[in-house]
Amino acid sequence: MRTPLALVLALAGCNPGGVTSGSEGSGASSGANSDASSGAATGAATGSTTATSSEPTTGNATNGGTTTAGTETSTGGPPPGDLPVGHCGARTGRYFGPDTWIYADVSSAPVRPDSAATTAWLEAHGGWGLGRLQIDTSFVINDADASTPRYTRTPDDPVPYSTDCDPGVQFPVPDGSRIEGLADTVCPGRVDGDYQGDCHLLVADLEGGFLYESFRATLTGGKFYTECDVAWDLALDVWSPTPAPGAELPPIEDRQWGIGRDCTGPDAAGFPIAPLLFTVGDVMSGKVEHAIRFILPNDRMQRAPVPGGDGPVYVWPATHAGGPQAEDAAAPIYGSRWRLRADFDPAARGLDPENPVVKAVVYGLKHHGMLLADGGNIALTAENADDCGTSWDALWGDKGSRVLEGIQPSDFEIIDVGGTEHGYDCVRNPAR
Prior knowledge:
Mean pLDDT: 86
Number of strands: 20
Number of helices: 5
Strand order of the largest sheet: 4-7-8-11
Low-confidence stretches: 1-70
Number of domains: 1
Shape: globular
Strand content: 15-25%
Protein backbone atom coordinates (compact mmCIF):
# COMPACT_ATOMS: atom_id res chain seq x y z
CA MET A 1 0.00 0.00 0.00
CA ARG A 2 1.17 3.51 -0.73
CA THR A 3 1.28 6.15 1.98
CA PRO A 4 -2.04 8.05 2.12
CA LEU A 5 -2.07 11.51 0.59
CA ALA A 6 -3.57 14.20 2.75
CA LEU A 7 -6.75 15.79 1.48
CA VAL A 8 -6.64 19.56 1.69
CA LEU A 9 -9.37 20.48 4.12
CA ALA A 10 -10.62 24.00 4.48
CA LEU A 11 -13.54 24.95 6.65
CA ALA A 12 -15.93 27.22 4.82
CA GLY A 13 -19.27 28.80 5.65
CA CYS A 14 -20.85 25.99 7.67
CA ASN A 15 -21.22 27.13 11.26
CA PRO A 16 -23.06 25.57 14.18
CA GLY A 17 -26.57 26.60 15.01
CA GLY A 18 -28.41 25.83 11.79
CA VAL A 19 -32.16 25.60 11.23
CA THR A 20 -33.90 22.28 10.64
CA SER A 21 -34.53 21.58 6.99
CA GLY A 22 -37.93 22.36 5.60
CA SER A 23 -38.13 19.30 3.39
CA GLU A 24 -41.23 17.17 3.27
CA GLY A 25 -41.26 13.40 3.66
CA SER A 26 -37.83 12.71 5.15
CA GLY A 27 -36.43 9.26 4.45
CA ALA A 28 -38.28 9.07 1.14
CA SER A 29 -35.87 6.67 -0.55
CA SER A 30 -37.83 3.82 0.94
CA GLY A 31 -37.49 1.58 -2.08
CA ALA A 32 -33.98 0.47 -1.16
CA ASN A 33 -35.30 -2.65 0.45
CA SER A 34 -38.92 -2.03 1.32
CA ASP A 35 -39.94 -4.04 -1.75
CA ALA A 36 -37.26 -6.69 -1.28
CA SER A 37 -35.27 -4.61 -3.68
CA SER A 38 -31.71 -4.00 -2.56
CA GLY A 39 -28.98 -6.44 -1.69
CA ALA A 40 -29.81 -6.40 1.98
CA ALA A 41 -32.73 -8.45 0.77
CA THR A 42 -31.32 -9.79 -2.51
CA GLY A 43 -28.19 -11.83 -2.11
CA ALA A 44 -28.55 -11.76 1.66
CA ALA A 45 -26.91 -14.48 3.65
CA THR A 46 -29.16 -16.89 5.45
CA GLY A 47 -27.36 -16.05 8.66
CA SER A 48 -25.14 -13.36 10.07
CA THR A 49 -21.58 -13.16 8.82
CA THR A 50 -18.86 -13.75 11.36
CA ALA A 51 -18.33 -10.52 13.25
CA THR A 52 -16.00 -9.33 15.92
CA SER A 53 -17.10 -7.51 19.04
CA SER A 54 -18.88 -4.18 18.76
CA GLU A 55 -16.51 -2.64 21.28
CA PRO A 56 -15.16 0.57 19.69
CA THR A 57 -11.62 1.01 18.52
CA THR A 58 -9.90 4.18 17.41
CA GLY A 59 -7.80 5.11 14.45
CA ASN A 60 -6.51 2.19 12.42
CA ALA A 61 -6.57 -0.34 15.22
CA THR A 62 -8.04 -3.71 14.40
CA ASN A 63 -10.72 -5.30 16.52
CA GLY A 64 -10.60 -8.88 17.66
CA GLY A 65 -7.60 -9.57 15.42
CA THR A 66 -9.54 -8.83 12.23
CA THR A 67 -8.15 -6.40 9.69
CA THR A 68 -11.04 -5.03 7.64
CA ALA A 69 -11.76 -2.88 4.62
CA GLY A 70 -12.34 0.03 6.95
CA THR A 71 -8.97 -0.24 8.65
CA GLU A 72 -6.73 -0.85 5.64
CA THR A 73 -4.51 1.97 4.56
CA SER A 74 -5.92 3.81 1.58
CA THR A 75 -4.14 3.09 -1.69
CA GLY A 76 -3.27 6.77 -1.94
CA GLY A 77 -5.81 8.83 -0.04
CA PRO A 78 -8.53 10.89 -1.68
CA PRO A 79 -7.46 13.12 -4.55
CA PRO A 80 -7.07 16.82 -3.78
CA GLY A 81 -9.64 19.23 -5.13
CA ASP A 82 -11.52 22.42 -4.45
CA LEU A 83 -15.13 21.20 -4.46
CA PRO A 84 -17.41 21.24 -1.39
CA VAL A 85 -17.31 17.88 0.44
CA GLY A 86 -18.34 16.53 3.84
CA HIS A 87 -21.20 17.70 6.03
CA CYS A 88 -22.65 20.97 4.73
CA GLY A 89 -20.02 20.93 1.98
CA ALA A 90 -17.87 22.72 4.55
CA ARG A 91 -14.57 21.17 3.45
CA THR A 92 -12.87 21.18 0.09
CA GLY A 93 -11.61 18.23 -1.91
CA ARG A 94 -13.15 15.38 -3.90
CA TYR A 95 -14.59 12.04 -2.94
CA PHE A 96 -13.01 10.29 -5.93
CA GLY A 97 -10.71 11.31 -8.76
CA PRO A 98 -11.77 14.00 -11.25
CA ASP A 99 -12.03 11.45 -14.08
CA THR A 100 -14.63 9.26 -12.38
CA TRP A 101 -18.21 9.30 -13.65
CA ILE A 102 -19.27 11.29 -10.59
CA TYR A 103 -17.50 14.42 -11.84
CA ALA A 104 -17.73 13.83 -15.60
CA ASP A 105 -19.17 16.68 -17.68
CA VAL A 106 -21.80 14.96 -19.83
CA SER A 107 -23.17 18.09 -21.50
CA SER A 108 -22.08 16.80 -24.91
CA ALA A 109 -22.33 13.05 -24.26
CA PRO A 110 -24.31 10.93 -26.77
CA VAL A 111 -27.96 10.19 -26.05
CA ARG A 112 -29.68 6.79 -25.98
CA PRO A 113 -31.80 6.13 -29.10
CA ASP A 114 -34.82 5.48 -26.85
CA SER A 115 -34.29 8.57 -24.68
CA ALA A 116 -37.36 10.46 -25.88
CA ALA A 117 -39.52 7.34 -25.61
CA THR A 118 -38.43 6.80 -22.00
CA THR A 119 -39.00 10.38 -20.84
CA ALA A 120 -42.42 10.35 -22.56
CA TRP A 121 -43.25 7.00 -20.91
CA LEU A 122 -42.47 8.41 -17.48
CA GLU A 123 -44.64 11.48 -18.05
CA ALA A 124 -47.50 9.25 -19.20
CA HIS A 125 -47.16 7.02 -16.12
CA GLY A 126 -47.25 9.62 -13.37
CA GLY A 127 -43.91 11.37 -13.78
CA TRP A 128 -41.69 11.86 -10.75
CA GLY A 129 -42.75 10.40 -7.41
CA LEU A 130 -45.58 12.47 -5.89
CA GLY A 131 -45.99 13.95 -9.39
CA ARG A 132 -43.32 16.61 -8.92
CA LEU A 133 -39.56 17.10 -8.81
CA GLN A 134 -39.17 17.58 -5.07
CA ILE A 135 -36.02 17.59 -2.93
CA ASP A 136 -35.37 15.21 -0.02
CA THR A 137 -32.92 16.50 2.61
CA SER A 138 -32.95 13.61 5.09
CA PHE A 139 -29.42 12.24 4.46
CA VAL A 140 -26.55 13.40 6.68
CA ILE A 141 -22.84 13.15 5.86
CA ASN A 142 -21.08 12.63 9.19
CA ASP A 143 -17.39 13.65 9.33
CA ALA A 144 -14.82 11.33 10.96
CA ASP A 145 -11.07 11.32 11.52
CA ALA A 146 -8.40 9.01 12.94
CA SER A 147 -9.64 9.53 16.51
CA THR A 148 -13.23 8.47 15.77
CA PRO A 149 -14.37 5.27 17.58
CA ARG A 150 -14.93 2.37 15.19
CA TYR A 151 -17.30 -0.55 15.48
CA THR A 152 -17.81 -3.91 13.84
CA ARG A 153 -21.21 -5.47 13.41
CA THR A 154 -22.48 -7.04 16.61
CA PRO A 155 -22.99 -10.82 16.55
CA ASP A 156 -26.30 -10.08 18.31
CA ASP A 157 -27.77 -8.55 15.15
CA PRO A 158 -30.96 -10.52 14.34
CA VAL A 159 -30.97 -9.39 10.68
CA PRO A 160 -28.88 -11.34 8.13
CA TYR A 161 -25.96 -9.44 6.63
CA SER A 162 -25.83 -9.11 2.83
CA THR A 163 -23.06 -11.13 1.22
CA ASP A 164 -22.93 -8.48 -1.53
CA CYS A 165 -21.43 -6.03 0.95
CA ASP A 166 -18.01 -5.61 2.58
CA PRO A 167 -17.28 -8.06 5.41
CA GLY A 168 -15.99 -7.05 8.82
CA VAL A 169 -15.84 -3.30 8.26
CA GLN A 170 -14.47 -1.24 11.16
CA PHE A 171 -17.13 1.45 10.86
CA PRO A 172 -16.35 4.89 12.34
CA VAL A 173 -19.23 6.54 14.18
CA PRO A 174 -18.46 10.09 15.36
CA ASP A 175 -20.11 11.45 18.48
CA GLY A 176 -23.33 13.22 17.54
CA SER A 177 -23.76 11.21 14.34
CA ARG A 178 -27.18 11.05 12.73
CA ILE A 179 -28.86 8.39 10.65
CA GLU A 180 -30.92 9.38 7.62
CA GLY A 181 -34.05 11.22 8.74
CA LEU A 182 -33.29 10.81 12.46
CA ALA A 183 -31.75 12.86 15.26
CA ASP A 184 -29.35 10.15 16.46
CA THR A 185 -27.98 6.70 15.56
CA VAL A 186 -30.96 4.63 16.70
CA CYS A 187 -33.20 3.28 13.94
CA PRO A 188 -36.62 2.52 15.47
CA GLY A 189 -37.17 -1.20 15.98
CA ARG A 190 -33.84 -2.14 14.38
CA VAL A 191 -32.39 -3.92 17.44
CA ASP A 192 -35.36 -6.31 17.40
CA GLY A 193 -35.05 -6.92 13.67
CA ASP A 194 -37.99 -4.74 12.69
CA TYR A 195 -37.67 -3.05 9.30
CA GLN A 196 -38.48 0.59 10.02
CA GLY A 197 -37.11 2.47 7.01
CA ASP A 198 -33.70 2.52 5.33
CA CYS A 199 -31.74 4.18 8.16
CA HIS A 200 -28.64 4.93 6.08
CA LEU A 201 -25.54 6.00 7.98
CA LEU A 202 -22.95 7.92 5.95
CA VAL A 203 -19.50 8.73 7.37
CA ALA A 204 -16.67 10.45 5.48
CA ASP A 205 -13.13 10.00 6.81
CA LEU A 206 -11.56 12.29 4.24
CA GLU A 207 -8.13 12.44 5.85
CA GLY A 208 -8.03 8.65 6.07
CA GLY A 209 -9.18 8.30 2.48
CA PHE A 210 -12.36 6.28 3.02
CA LEU A 211 -16.09 6.82 2.71
CA TYR A 212 -18.19 4.50 4.88
CA GLU A 213 -21.85 3.84 4.13
CA SER A 214 -24.29 1.55 5.92
CA PHE A 215 -27.86 0.36 5.35
CA ARG A 216 -30.31 -0.13 8.21
CA ALA A 217 -27.71 0.90 10.74
CA THR A 218 -28.06 1.45 14.47
CA LEU A 219 -25.53 2.17 17.19
CA THR A 220 -26.92 1.79 20.69
CA GLY A 221 -25.54 0.49 23.96
CA GLY A 222 -22.10 0.15 22.38
CA LYS A 223 -23.41 -2.31 19.76
CA PHE A 224 -23.43 -1.65 16.02
CA TYR A 225 -26.22 -3.19 13.95
CA THR A 226 -26.03 -3.12 10.16
CA GLU A 227 -27.45 -4.99 7.18
CA CYS A 228 -24.86 -3.82 4.67
CA ASP A 229 -21.60 -1.84 4.94
CA VAL A 230 -19.37 -0.58 2.16
CA ALA A 231 -16.00 1.09 2.75
CA TRP A 232 -15.08 3.03 -0.40
CA ASP A 233 -11.36 3.66 -0.93
CA LEU A 234 -11.42 7.20 -2.30
CA ALA A 235 -8.15 6.73 -4.18
CA LEU A 236 -9.63 4.01 -6.40
CA ASP A 237 -11.63 4.47 -9.58
CA VAL A 238 -13.33 1.08 -9.79
CA TRP A 239 -15.72 2.07 -12.59
CA SER A 240 -13.73 3.37 -15.59
CA PRO A 241 -13.79 3.24 -18.53
CA THR A 242 -17.29 4.23 -19.63
CA PRO A 243 -18.78 1.58 -21.96
CA ALA A 244 -19.04 2.68 -25.58
CA PRO A 245 -22.47 4.00 -26.64
CA GLY A 246 -24.71 1.16 -27.79
CA ALA A 247 -22.09 -1.47 -27.00
CA GLU A 248 -23.02 -4.84 -25.54
CA LEU A 249 -21.46 -5.54 -22.17
CA PRO A 250 -18.65 -8.11 -22.08
CA PRO A 251 -18.85 -11.14 -19.75
CA ILE A 252 -18.29 -10.49 -16.06
CA GLU A 253 -14.91 -12.24 -16.17
CA ASP A 254 -13.77 -9.68 -18.76
CA ARG A 255 -15.19 -6.52 -17.24
CA GLN A 256 -16.04 -5.56 -13.69
CA TRP A 257 -16.90 -2.26 -12.03
CA GLY A 258 -18.11 -0.75 -8.75
CA ILE A 259 -18.87 -3.17 -5.92
CA GLY A 260 -19.24 -5.88 -8.56
CA ARG A 261 -21.79 -6.68 -11.23
CA ASP A 262 -25.16 -7.71 -9.81
CA CYS A 263 -24.00 -6.52 -6.35
CA THR A 264 -25.89 -4.02 -4.28
CA GLY A 265 -24.71 -1.75 -1.47
CA PRO A 266 -26.35 0.66 0.94
CA ASP A 267 -27.93 2.24 -2.16
CA ALA A 268 -29.88 -0.21 -4.32
CA ALA A 269 -27.98 0.68 -7.52
CA GLY A 270 -24.64 0.06 -5.81
CA PHE A 271 -23.58 3.72 -6.02
CA PRO A 272 -21.73 5.58 -3.28
CA ILE A 273 -24.38 7.90 -1.82
CA ALA A 274 -22.55 10.86 -0.26
CA PRO A 275 -20.82 12.08 -3.47
CA LEU A 276 -24.22 12.31 -5.22
CA LEU A 277 -25.87 14.49 -2.56
CA PHE A 278 -25.84 18.20 -3.25
CA THR A 279 -25.13 20.28 -0.15
CA VAL A 280 -25.67 23.86 0.99
CA GLY A 281 -21.96 24.28 0.22
CA ASP A 282 -22.60 23.25 -3.40
CA VAL A 283 -25.44 25.74 -3.71
CA MET A 284 -23.53 28.55 -2.03
CA SER A 285 -20.64 27.98 -4.45
CA GLY A 286 -23.04 28.82 -7.27
CA LYS A 287 -23.11 25.47 -9.07
CA VAL A 288 -23.29 21.76 -8.38
CA GLU A 289 -20.22 20.22 -10.02
CA HIS A 290 -21.02 16.53 -9.66
CA ALA A 291 -23.75 14.07 -10.61
CA ILE A 292 -26.89 14.08 -8.45
CA ARG A 293 -28.82 11.14 -6.99
CA PHE A 294 -32.48 10.69 -7.93
CA ILE A 295 -35.10 8.04 -7.30
CA LEU A 296 -38.43 6.89 -8.76
CA PRO A 297 -41.28 4.71 -7.54
CA ASN A 298 -40.62 1.03 -8.27
CA ASP A 299 -43.60 0.81 -10.63
CA ARG A 300 -41.94 3.45 -12.84
CA MET A 301 -38.67 1.54 -13.35
CA GLN A 302 -38.01 -1.20 -15.87
CA ARG A 303 -38.21 -4.92 -15.25
CA ALA A 304 -37.22 -6.89 -18.34
CA PRO A 305 -37.64 -10.40 -19.72
CA VAL A 306 -34.75 -12.72 -18.86
CA PRO A 307 -34.27 -16.46 -19.47
CA GLY A 308 -36.87 -18.28 -17.44
CA GLY A 309 -38.88 -15.24 -16.43
CA ASP A 310 -38.40 -11.56 -15.83
CA GLY A 311 -35.93 -9.61 -13.75
CA PRO A 312 -34.36 -6.28 -12.89
CA VAL A 313 -32.33 -4.35 -15.45
CA TYR A 314 -29.60 -1.76 -14.97
CA VAL A 315 -26.87 0.10 -16.86
CA TRP A 316 -23.32 1.18 -16.02
CA PRO A 317 -22.19 2.60 -13.60
CA ALA A 318 -24.87 0.87 -11.51
CA THR A 319 -24.16 -2.67 -10.38
CA HIS A 320 -27.66 -3.67 -9.32
CA ALA A 321 -31.35 -2.89 -9.65
CA GLY A 322 -33.66 -2.90 -6.66
CA GLY A 323 -37.30 -3.89 -7.09
CA PRO A 324 -38.41 -2.38 -10.43
CA GLN A 325 -41.89 -3.45 -11.52
CA ALA A 326 -42.62 -1.89 -14.94
CA GLU A 327 -42.51 -4.63 -17.58
CA ASP A 328 -42.12 -2.19 -20.46
CA ALA A 329 -39.02 -1.66 -22.60
CA ALA A 330 -39.66 2.10 -22.58
CA ALA A 331 -39.62 2.45 -18.78
CA PRO A 332 -36.63 4.11 -17.03
CA ILE A 333 -33.65 1.88 -16.24
CA TYR A 334 -31.77 1.67 -12.93
CA GLY A 335 -28.45 3.51 -13.09
CA SER A 336 -29.45 5.60 -16.12
CA ARG A 337 -27.98 9.10 -16.30
CA TRP A 338 -30.41 11.91 -17.14
CA ARG A 339 -29.13 15.26 -18.45
CA LEU A 340 -31.22 18.42 -18.45
CA ARG A 341 -31.55 19.70 -22.01
CA ALA A 342 -29.13 22.46 -23.00
CA ASP A 343 -32.03 24.69 -24.08
CA PHE A 344 -33.92 24.29 -20.81
CA ASP A 345 -35.26 27.65 -19.61
CA PRO A 346 -36.14 27.71 -15.89
CA ALA A 347 -38.48 30.69 -16.29
CA ALA A 348 -40.49 28.88 -18.96
CA ARG A 349 -41.29 26.19 -16.37
CA GLY A 350 -42.26 28.70 -13.69
CA LEU A 351 -38.95 28.56 -11.80
CA ASP A 352 -37.11 31.61 -10.51
CA PRO A 353 -33.84 31.63 -12.49
CA GLU A 354 -32.21 33.81 -9.81
CA ASN A 355 -33.01 31.47 -6.93
CA PRO A 356 -29.66 30.05 -5.70
CA VAL A 357 -30.95 26.46 -5.56
CA VAL A 358 -32.42 26.70 -9.06
CA LYS A 359 -29.21 28.20 -10.47
CA ALA A 360 -26.85 25.69 -8.84
CA VAL A 361 -28.93 22.56 -9.46
CA VAL A 362 -29.91 23.44 -13.03
CA TYR A 363 -26.20 23.92 -13.78
CA GLY A 364 -25.44 20.52 -12.25
CA LEU A 365 -28.22 18.77 -14.14
CA LYS A 366 -27.11 20.29 -17.46
CA HIS A 367 -23.42 19.49 -17.01
CA HIS A 368 -23.29 16.39 -14.79
CA GLY A 369 -26.81 14.99 -14.82
CA MET A 370 -28.62 12.81 -12.31
CA LEU A 371 -28.47 9.04 -11.85
CA LEU A 372 -31.34 6.71 -10.99
CA ALA A 373 -30.21 5.13 -7.74
CA ASP A 374 -33.13 3.70 -5.78
CA GLY A 375 -36.87 3.34 -5.39
CA GLY A 376 -38.95 5.96 -3.60
CA ASN A 377 -41.09 9.04 -3.94
CA ILE A 378 -39.09 12.25 -3.43
CA ALA A 379 -37.04 12.52 -6.59
CA LEU A 380 -33.91 14.56 -5.90
CA THR A 381 -31.60 13.98 -2.95
CA ALA A 382 -29.71 16.72 -1.10
CA GLU A 383 -27.86 16.61 2.20
CA ASN A 384 -29.43 17.79 5.44
CA ALA A 385 -28.49 21.35 6.42
CA ASP A 386 -28.93 21.17 10.19
CA ASP A 387 -25.95 22.80 11.96
CA CYS A 388 -24.75 24.33 8.69
CA GLY A 389 -25.33 27.97 9.61
CA THR A 390 -27.28 28.44 6.37
CA SER A 391 -30.56 26.50 6.11
CA TRP A 392 -32.28 25.13 3.05
CA ASP A 393 -35.23 27.37 3.91
CA ALA A 394 -32.98 30.41 3.54
CA LEU A 395 -31.74 29.20 0.15
CA TRP A 396 -34.81 27.89 -1.60
CA GLY A 397 -37.30 30.48 -0.34
CA ASP A 398 -41.08 30.30 -0.15
CA LYS A 399 -41.47 27.30 -2.49
CA GLY A 400 -39.46 25.16 -0.11
CA SER A 401 -38.44 21.70 -1.26
CA ARG A 402 -40.67 22.17 -4.31
CA VAL A 403 -38.46 24.93 -5.71
CA LEU A 404 -37.73 22.77 -8.82
CA GLU A 405 -41.28 21.45 -9.17
CA GLY A 406 -41.87 22.69 -12.73
CA ILE A 407 -39.15 20.51 -14.27
CA GLN A 408 -40.66 17.61 -16.24
CA PRO A 409 -39.16 14.29 -17.43
CA SER A 410 -39.35 15.53 -21.04
CA ASP A 411 -36.90 18.30 -20.11
CA PHE A 412 -34.19 15.61 -19.89
CA GLU A 413 -32.16 13.46 -22.26
CA ILE A 414 -30.78 10.07 -21.21
CA ILE A 415 -27.08 9.41 -21.79
CA ASP A 416 -25.99 6.35 -23.76
CA VAL A 417 -23.59 4.26 -21.63
CA GLY A 418 -23.83 0.98 -23.48
CA GLY A 419 -25.90 -2.14 -23.00
CA THR A 420 -28.04 -3.28 -20.10
CA GLU A 421 -27.30 -5.87 -17.45
CA HIS A 422 -29.67 -7.81 -15.21
CA GLY A 423 -29.66 -10.23 -12.33
CA TYR A 424 -29.04 -10.67 -8.62
CA ASP A 425 -26.09 -13.07 -8.90
CA CYS A 426 -23.46 -10.87 -7.26
CA VAL A 427 -19.85 -11.29 -8.34
CA ARG A 428 -17.77 -8.92 -6.22
CA ASN A 429 -15.16 -6.76 -7.89
CA PRO A 430 -11.64 -7.93 -6.92
CA ALA A 431 -10.24 -4.47 -7.76
CA ARG A 432 -11.80 -3.14 -4.58
